[in-house]
Amino acid sequence: VLAEVVFTGAFTGELTWRDRVHQGAGQRFSLPGVVVLRTRDGAVTSVKTLYDRDDWLRQIDVPTC
Predict the structure, then answer these.
(1) In this structure, is the dihedral angle defined by the CA atoms of residues 38, 32, 27 and 58, taken in order, positive or negative?
(2) What are phi and psi of 57, to 5 degrees?
């Protein structure tokens, strides 16, 4: 099962990226993505979420280079 989604929220946690710790300050983000569900016998067996990581990092003010 495939579903197009938009992930939205505010970065309020802590992220370690390229050996540097970034503290969230409520930076808002909104980015398109896809959710992939695998099912077997009527049950969900796995869930995968896909989105553009660099787009998200830019939106929360984390350098991508």
Answers:
(1) positive
(2) -60, -40
